[in-house]
Amino acid sequence: MQSPRVERVTEAVANAGSARPKIEILQVSKQFPAEDPARGLAVSNVSLTVGQNEFVSLLGRSGCGKTTLLNMIAGLVAPTQGQIAIDGKPVRGPGPDRGMVFQSSALFPWLTAIDNIEFGLVNRGVPKVERRRHAQDLISLVQLSGFESKYPRELSGGMQQRVAIARALALDPEILLMDEPFGALDELTRAEMQDELLAIWQKRTKTVVFVTHSISEAIFLSDRVIVMSPHPGRIREQIVIDVPRPRQRASVQFAQFYETIQRAIE
Ligand SMILES: Nc1ncnc2c1ncn2[C@@H]1O[C@H](COP(=O)(O)OP(=O)(O)OP(=O)(O)O)[C@@H](O)[C@H]1O
Ligand SMILES: [Mg+2]
After folding, report:
1. Which of 4, 106, 113, 238 could pair covalently with 102 via S-S, beta carbons 3.0-4.6 A apart?
2. Which fold is adopted by the domain 5-97+173-265?
3. pTM score, two decimals?
4. What does the angle CA 244 – CA 246 – CA 252 come to, to the nearest 5 degrees?
5. Which residues surround the ion ligand 2 when the cut-off is CB under 5 Å?
């Protein structure tokens, strides 16, 4: 059996191979104000392209700049150097082409679960009946039927996160940016959500950038795993997971990828 393909990308561009680039990140850095500038350098000279419909995971230790990089793609944080483009157009702020799931669910506390999901649709002027039907479908998708009228404070952390995922999907964005979306879920629900996400990704052909701390989650889901290193946040290696889906978590091949990625993180 072939061993996993590991590519060192310390200086080179981590790229999507032949796929048409959807997201292009070119020599991007983010310096936060800090007493010690070296500590404030959250992301340093990162270049990465993500292909149309590609599923890419960012993996790495706490503080290596994963959230910062995702926020820059989302247009919520501006790079201090370099450029980010979507479909060749520079990112200047958030947009409906990018749906975001935050590390903590960030729901509107004054809205019920279903109203949170509908929020973006209200802004877009979708009629009430259609809005409700669409939100109800998403409620079923994330397995929250019966909890439509609960407020976030009445839901568990995992349920809140599922509402946040449904909210991100509501506008059917071409790009999904997900920051540890399943971190607060129990293992069974997490595995179910991973299956659901793959189904959504395959059915609606989205481009996904997915941040996780879980090596096995990254292997299960991704076309490519980008391993980052901290202080300053850089891309260290990329591992191409060229295995057909659905992937078998208990396979020898899976274990090989696991070991390779673990070594890359260390
Ligand atoms: N708004 C900010 N102001 C100053 N420093 C920040 C800010 N946001 C992030 N940082 C710093 O940037 C670095 C990267 O943070 P970031 O949140 O991107 O890491 P992360 O990889 O997402 O970590 P985790 O896995 O814990 O979520 C950290 O050293 C952090 O302290
Ligand atoms: Mg983070």
Report:
1. 106
2. Rossmann fold (3.40.50)
3. 0.92
4. 75
5. 67
